[in-house]
Amino acid sequence: MKNISIKIIPLSKADYDAWLKLWQSYLIFYETRLPPSTTEKTWRNLLDSNMPIYGFGAWVDETLVGITHVVLHPNTWNTTECCYLEDLYVSESARGQGIGRALIEQVYDFADKQHCNRVYWTTQEGNTTARKLYDAIATQTDMVQYRKKL
Prior knowledge:
Layout: E1 7-10, H1 16-29, H2 36-47, E2 53-60, E3 63-73, E4 82-90, H3 99-113, E5 118-120, H4 128-137
């Protein structure tokens, strides 16, 4: 692993094109499609200070190589908010260099500063590469997710 300098900062309006490229790659990775209106709304929400949705970008040599989106929300089991790490993606060419870990650590730091009681996320069971990292930096729960599309 080469020694690289990773800069992680909140996403800004100027980052749209670079973000969109990674967002589309992320959707392809998860074999899904979203209408352009959903992508545009997601981007607007990430920049809207009135929405509890935040985006961070990982930069290496002025290139956006990773993104993460988080949602803060109240919960019934604590008096402080939870931080849901909803999306995490690192470009294929930048994987294995600690960028995913750095993005998650940024989320941990952000959530701590927001006085959240926990950070949590889900991933596909077969996402073994990512799960090796997740197993090293968090605790897998025994919860099983159910979903009904509306």
